[in-house]
Amino acid sequence: MTTITTRTVPYPADSLTMVGHLALPAGAGRRPAVLVGPEGVGLSDVERRRAEALAELGYVALAFDLHGGRSLQDPDDMLARCLPLLADPERLRGIGHAALDVLRTEPRADLDRTAAVGYGTGGAVALELGRDGVDLRAIATVNALTTGRPGETARIRCPVWAGVGSADPIVPPAQRDAFTAEMEAAGVDWRLVVYGGALHAFHHPPVGHTVRPGVGHHPRHAQRAWRDVVALLAECLPVTE
């Protein structure tokens, strides 16, 4: 296994002190950079491990925070925080730009080769960065088929990959259709993968706290979605020595 290094990075965003997890690949040269955004519950060891897995593949990876170091395990607390965020693109963009600022201070991050990968609310942040015209090489989302304000999706300059479970009641077929219609109308290079029988947050390992109805882990599709994300990065953001 490739030797990587990690560190905790505090930074300001959304009037909070966020606590990100930065993972650096072996070596000393500059490498492509990837933002990793968590589900609405907030940054957990799941996203930290994903950032570390990307560092093992040669990427500078930052798993960014949503809630100022908190994990919102109570579904009502999570919704009370996330629903206003999801209704306010400027706040989502502010969270994303603050995470990008962390990468800008990291000498090993190649800011000309940056991607955003996000799950749930973290995926909405990734999409809003694209709609804000940020120069990304790729955007990948799971459970985040959010739609944007008219005309702004045309600012997305990179391929967009999206994954969703076919049995996800939180992201129903009508939302899928609205998302794909928006991408198509804007001329975005987009892909949508629907994973048969999967619920919301199917990518996330089982947790020991109460979850919303319609949430559930699907081990096979979780592995497939991760492979799809890695393949997108390899296509759009290859690691070269």
UniProtKB/TrEMBL annotation:
Any Pfam family hit: DLH
GO molecular function: hydrolase activity
Annotated ranges, domain Dienelactone hydrolase: 20-235
Alphabetically ordered keywords of this record: Hydrolase
Gene3D superfamilies to which the protein is assigned, alphabetical: alpha/beta hydrolase (3.40.50.1820)
Top-level taxonomic group: Bacteria
Hydrolase keyword on record: yes
SUPFAM superfamilies: alpha/beta-Hydrolases (SSF53474)
The family this protein is said to belong to: Belongs to the AB hydrolase superfamily.
PANTHER family: DIENELACTONE HYDROLASE DOMAIN-CONTAINING PROTEIN (PTHR22946:SF0), DIENELACTONE HYDROLASE DOMAIN-CONTAINING PROTEIN-RELATED (PTHR22946)
Protein name (Swiss-Prot/TrEMBL): Dienelactone hydrolase family protein
